[in-house]
Design brief:
This protein is mostly helical. It has four helices and no strands. Helix 3 (88-105) runs antiparallel to helix 4. It starts with a helix and ends in a 7-residue tail after the last helix.
Length: 139
Amino acid sequence: MLGGLTGLVTREVGGVVRRNLTVVVLYLLAGVLAAGAVGYGLDALHTLLTLHYGAIAASLSIAGGLLAAALLMLGIALYVKSRPRPDRRLAAAVAAAPIAATLVGNRKFGWRTGLVGGVVLLGLILGRQFSQGDDDAET
């Protein structure tokens, strides 16, 4: 029985890994194509600006625009990073509650086993929080 179950799990995991790998490869190809499209768009813009303002002014204009976009993205990233993170402990406790409730309701194990399981789950959650340290201290 365990051999069949192991085979089923292996096939399922293999299928998930294969599908996720396909998606990642497709995302990478889309990124490469988008980067190429942006490059050709910038080249076309450079050509257009060269016709009107000259080669040096066109290059400086595009460089300035790219620098402004990079600074804008940096500012947005710093703003997102500085926002306070939501408390994950409550979400972890809510996720662990059904497991503890199932153990308490099971007559085979009894309420003591469910209580011990709940304490162990709570200890795992709190231990993980303490071992990670303060999230705001991360740089």
